[in-house]
Amino acid sequence: MDKKNALRAGALAAGTTLMMLLMSSPALALTRDDGDDPGTGLSVVETLGLYVLAPIVLFAVIAGLVMVLDRSQEKHRVTSRNVRTRPKADAKA
User: Fold this and answer.
1) What is the pLDDT of residues 7-19, one digit of tens each?
2) From residue 38, how far is each of 26, 55, 72 by CA, in Å?
3) What is the 3-state secondary structure of 14-40?
4) What is the pTM of this model?
5) Three-state SS for 68?
6) 56: left (phi over 0), alpha (psi -120 to 50) or beta
7) How far is CA 86 from CA 20, 42, 82, 89, 90, in A?
8) DSSP label at 69?
């Protein structure tokens, strides 16, 4: 029964992908619209810098700021070396 469901899901995914490819025909991109004024294209270096290097640098800057500006106290951090098993207050019955 599991194989039948997998086959059904694969057929659905393939059909959906095919319909999306057919609906977004690249032939429509060949005709220019009125007032269309495209700029110059990006070079390979500009494309890599914009879509690869810039997000990596942005992620590194944000991660660095989070680590540097971390104000949490050591006793609140959960690690295997500072787990306390004794309660701080004594229970009175």
Assistant:
1) 999 999 999 999 8
2) 17, 25, 50
3) HHHHHHHHHHCCHHHHCCCCCCCCCCC
4) 0.47
5) helix
6) alpha
7) 60, 63, 12, 9, 9
8) T
